[in-house]
Design goal:
binds fe (ii) ion; 33 strands; mainly beta; six-stranded antiparallel beta sheet
Length: 491
């Protein structure tokens, strides 16, 4: 195509920008808490060239790494740069798109046969003093956290065998180990999953492979103090469909979901599979933990169908966001018995982009945060993002008792996934930082980053940072405190 398609994935707030830029000493309203010092990294898809196919998705966009940096003196700076993936470099050299449909290499220009297709556009991950940009269809790219320069594809020093690495890792707060996995580990539509552990220095110490019941889009997983937990939902890939030029993912409403659980330092042969409901879909888990009775509780943002419009189209489904149902759901698996069924309760309303304090990872927890849609909004939401409409409600939930506090955005506004900044103060829940979009007039778009007191989101932001340059919607973010940045292996 010579121009970007006139579709929701490429227009409005999703209109491509494709510009690398730096902004210094941003305007701040309110007071930035003294504990907010460090870098908020964000992954932003932004296609450098019009796609080969008009029905392409925003998820295909080239990865850009953006950083909102809170300096020691309270100055706030913003930078954004492309991830120089092999794919991006090949397309820049050609001056046009060469890679075809979403995760289907059989639709690529023959000149890029065998070139790494990943766009590294999903999550910036910080571990062992390194910054990685990840997307689940390939290996990560290592980035320089200071200059945002791309250092190259990352395979843990030649040790990683899996061809893929998830964009959702889990870091144990006590051991600082990074637990992760890669699905389609040995190629397209494969049922092989690699389960990996890197020690606190970032050295890959474990990699084992196992088979899932079917090749599934395994976007996230969870750990507890003793287990690794692998949810499998019925959005599936098929090699013959890919070879015929079709879609990577089709969602099946008549197929069961599963949860595989194994001792986190055990052997994959110890995996136990629990049977979940048919047709459901989850992208993100909030947390998982064990209780004293030997049960595993997994809290996840589940919907009753896959939320992505392009996957629904490929599946012959048409369920708009407001009819997806589901909620923040707890699935409980009893590890003491032999029953392969799980039980389900609802903790909170539908939503996504859950966040917990890092210290609560894999442990019983008293609070979490996620995004939802305000049911009382007197006006339209802001269209855009990867599922069509932005979230406009920031929720704080106490999962033990269901108590919810919320901050609601006005019509034609949206909020993106927050990062959590811990507080050293006794009893203080820390801070949340989120990027927000607000239409203030027909053509007047305000964009900025807002800081909330995590224990009192309903009170509204304590500080607002204006970004005087248009931003494309992010996928995920990661907070790196200054003390961690100072220990970076890259200078
Ligand atoms: Fe995600």
């Amino acid at each position: 195509m010579k121009q970007y398609p006139d579709t929701p994935d490429f227009t409005g707030i999703n209109a491509p920008i494709g510009e690398e830029y730096s902004l210094k000493n941003l305007e701040v309203e309110g007071e930035i808490p003294a504990e907010v010092r460090g870098a908020f990294y964000r992954a932003v898809p932004d296609p450098a060239f019009p796609p080969m196919f008009e029905d392409d998705t925003a998820l295909s966009g080239d990865g850009m790494l953006s950083r909102l940096y809170f300096g020691p003196d309270g100055q706030v700076d913003f930078d954004i740069r492309f991830v120089e993936t092999a794919r991006h470099q090949a397309e820049v050299a050609a001056g046009k798109a060469l890679f075809g449909r979403y995760r289907n290499p059989f639709t690529d220009d023959p000149s890029v046969d065998g070139v790494d297709r990943t766009v590294a556009n999903t999550t910036p991950v910080w571990h062992g003093g390194r910054l990685l940009m990840t997307k689940e269809d390939g290996r990560a790219y290592e980035m320089n956290p200071h200059t945002l320069e791309t250092l190259g594809s990352y395979d843990f020093g030649g040790v990683l065998k899996s061809e893929t690495m998830t964009a959702h890792v889990r870091i144990d707060p006590a051991t600082k180990e990074m637990f992760f996995f890669g699905y389609e580990a040995d190629g397209l539509a494969s049922s092989k999953v690699a389960y990996c552990i890197a020690d606190r220095e970032g050295t890959l110490t474990h990699e084992q492979w196992f088979d899932v019941p079917y090749c599934s889009m395994m976007h996230d997983f969870v750990i507890t103090e003793n287990y690794a937990v692998f949810p499998v939902y019925p959005t599936t890939a098929d090699l013959e469909r890919l070879k015929a030029g079709g879609d990577h993912w089709v969602h099946h409403m008549d197929l069961e979901s599963w949860v595989g659980i194994m001792p986190r330092y055990g052997d994959v042969s110890e995996m136990r599979w629990f049977r979940g409901p048919k047709g459901v879909s989850t992208y993100h888990m909030m947390n998982c933990f064990e209780d004293e009775e030997g049960r595993v509780h997994m809290d996840h943002c589940m919907s009753n169908c896959n939320a992505f419009p392009f996957i629904q189209r490929a599946s012959g489904l048409n369920v708009p966001p407001q009819e997806l149902g589901g909620g923040l759901i707890r699935w409980t698996m009893d590890m003491t018995g032999s029953d392969d069924n799980l039980t389900q309760v609802t903790l909170g309303p539908p939503g996504d982009m859950p966040r917990i304090a890092d210290k609560d990872q894999g442990r019983p927890y008293q609070r979490g945060w996620y995004l939802s849609v305000n049911p009382e909004l007197k006006g339209p939401p802001l269209m855009g993002g990867v599922v069509g409409a932005e979230f406009n409600l920031l929720l704080r939930i106490e999962p033990d008792n269901g108590r919810i506090d919320a901050y609601a955005f006005p019509p034609l506004s949206g909020i993106h996934e927050p990062v959590h900044v811990p507080s050293a103060r006794d009893g203080h829940e820390g801070w949340l930082i989120s990027f927000v979009d607000m239409m203030q007039g027909e053509d007047d778009l305000y964009q900025g980053a807002w800081i909330f007191d995590a224990g009192n989101v309903a009170a509204g932001p304590v500080a607002k940072i204006t970004i005087p340059h248009r931003l494309r919607p992010q996928v995920h973010g990661w907070w790196v405190p200054q003390a961690e940045l100072d220990k970076s292996v890259r200078k």
